[in-house]
Write a sequence for this structure.
């Protein structure tokens, strides 16, 4: 299988480049530009992509690479900083641009380059740069320009070296996908070979080889990643796998039962479910401070998991559902500054007696994990589950958590999700849920005065969950949901819709 090596210079869109390449059916990995030539040779890339980055190529200390990379004989695509670096190293000149180009920019291409095949002469591309190429390296020619940037794209087709000043990976670039396809299929001659249908067997074989006759322990959370990991490991090593499912009672309506049923009945996984609802409720009794609630849930979760793991005894492997963005964002895969220290990556739990960690989804993006889940036969309802926080409904109930409040929220949330599905919006909105405010207010039902809870609905659109915009849901949908919740869920007499984005709000309420 062909492999693309993406050298990371710390740009903000680098994961996106990798995703786009994978979407084209080509396998790729992101590595820091600090990788040595020996490591590059060991990786044996069939093509290289240089990402953008915040540095200025002619400043002291700017990220550099060994020019020997250009003599490997494999095609190279330099994007933004990556293009400037390629020019700089091969004898071209870069300079500070007169005007910084930022945003959607019209670019004209000459029609002579394979990189712009099937693309209209004039189109809109995403630019974000303050440095430009003043003179291309010897042997290169200009194949696209904008009003403010003569070297918007350059090429040396004889050596299969290409550079673009714009970002083909972002959606604002009109024909960005086509540019990448032209590079991967046209220039490199690759075909679509990376798909989850073809990866299943490889992944199973890899797990088998790694695990041998060892025992594997996996924590099931009810979420997509751990469920897919369980299905994959089950196929690979069968009953050598044991899953612990700590049900803290703060899952969505019927969620715990569904996960258990699918895993046990359909996949014959050895699932040890611990119903710890009462325990969690008692620990949370009287606690109102959000961070304190999170802490209690987190600590108690580990304690319960640990007690269950002790019953199993020593295992050779602890499996985790780490996925590729976690790896890269933790600063392990590429160069990107650590965006968040992911709880799954790096820190090893000390509360289970194991020898090694196995992360069967470590190379996959979220959409690939979902595809893999479907390939393995997991139901769509599970595979398309939304992100759900570890502390569960605990961070969606403001104030003290009680059994009654959990029940109210589960019912209200289920109605909202049902109606989103009926409206055909279940997959197009990034995340949506109901939360229980700690507010009670006066209402009238029948001829009676009520004094009951207000449920808040939240729906957001986001790429990365670092920022999010509230979703403009149709009024009719909100009307239906509101009517059903107030009509069907006791102790709710008011439904509110959250119209705040992140920032300044967060996605969750606590
Ligand atoms: P916030 O509320 O931080 O949420 O804007 C961003 C995304 O992260 C999820 N989230 C969590 N996920 N454990 C998790 O596994 C947590 O403690 C947690 N808190 C928030 C949230 O659902 C959203 O998708």
């Amino acid at each position: 299988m062909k492999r693309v090596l993406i050298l990371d210079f710390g740009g903000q869109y680098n994961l996106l480049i990798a995703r786009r390449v994978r979407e084209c059916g080509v396998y790729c990995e992101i590595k820091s530009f600090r990788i040595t030539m020996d490591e590059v040779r060991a990786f044996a890339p069939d093509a290289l992509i240089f990402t953008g980055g915040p540095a200025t190529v002619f400043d002291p200390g700017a990220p550099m690479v060994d020019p020997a990379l250009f003599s490997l004989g494999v095609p190279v695509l330099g994007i933004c900083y990556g293009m400037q670096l390629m020019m700089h190293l091969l004898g071209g000149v870069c300079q500070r641009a007169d005007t910084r180009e930022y945003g959607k920019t019209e670019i004209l291409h000459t029609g002579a380059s394979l990189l712009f095949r099937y693309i209209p002469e004039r189109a809109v591309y995403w630019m974000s740069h303050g440095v430009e190429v003043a003179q291309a390296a010897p042997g290169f020619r200009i194949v696209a320009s904008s009003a403010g940037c003569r070297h918007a794209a350059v090429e040396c087709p004889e050596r299969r070296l290409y550079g673009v000043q714009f970002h083909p990976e972002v959606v604002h670039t009109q024909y960005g996908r086509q540019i990448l396809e032209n590079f991967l299929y046209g220039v490199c001659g690759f075909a679509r070979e990376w798909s989850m249908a073809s990866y299943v067997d490889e992944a199973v074989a890899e797990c088998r080889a790694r695990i041998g006759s060892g025992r594997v322990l996996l924590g099931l959370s009810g979420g997509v990643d751990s469920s897919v990991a369980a299905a994959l490991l089950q196929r690979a090593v069968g009953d050598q796998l044991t899953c612990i499912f700590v049900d803290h009672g703060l899952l969505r309506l019927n969620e715990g039962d569904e996960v258990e049923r699918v895993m046990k009945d359909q996949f014959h996984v050895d699932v040890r479910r611990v119903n710890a609802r009462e325990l969690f409720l008692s620990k949370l009794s009287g606690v109102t401070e959000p961070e304190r609630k999170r802490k209690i849930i987190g600590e108690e979760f580990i304690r319960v998991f640990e007690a269950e793991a002790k019953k199993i005894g020593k295992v050779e492997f602890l499996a985790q559902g780490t996925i590729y963005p976690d790896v890269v964002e933790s600063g392990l895969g590429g160069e990107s500054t650590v965006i968040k220290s992911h709880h799954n990556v790096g820190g090893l739990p000390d509360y289970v007696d194991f020898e090694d960690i196995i992360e069967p989804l470590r190379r996959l993006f979220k959409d690939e994990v979902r595809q893999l889940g479907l390939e393995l036969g997991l139901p769509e309802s599970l595979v398309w589950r939304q992100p759900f926080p570890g502390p569960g409904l605990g961070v969606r109930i403001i104030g003290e958590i009680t059994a009654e409040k959990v029940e109210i929220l589960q019912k209200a949330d289920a109605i909202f999700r049902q109606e989103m599905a009926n409206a055909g919006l279940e997959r197009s909105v990034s995340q949506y849920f109901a939360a229980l405010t700690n507010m009670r207010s006066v209402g009238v039902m029948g001829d009676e005065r009520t004094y009951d809870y207000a449920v808040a609905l939240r729906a957001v659109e986001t790429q990365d969950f670092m920022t999010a915009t509230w979703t403009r849901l149709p009024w009719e949908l909100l009307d239906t949901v509101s009517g059903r919740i107030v009509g069907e869920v006791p102790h709710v007499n008011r439904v509110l819709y959250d119209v705040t984005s992140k920032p300044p709000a967060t996605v969750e309420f606590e």
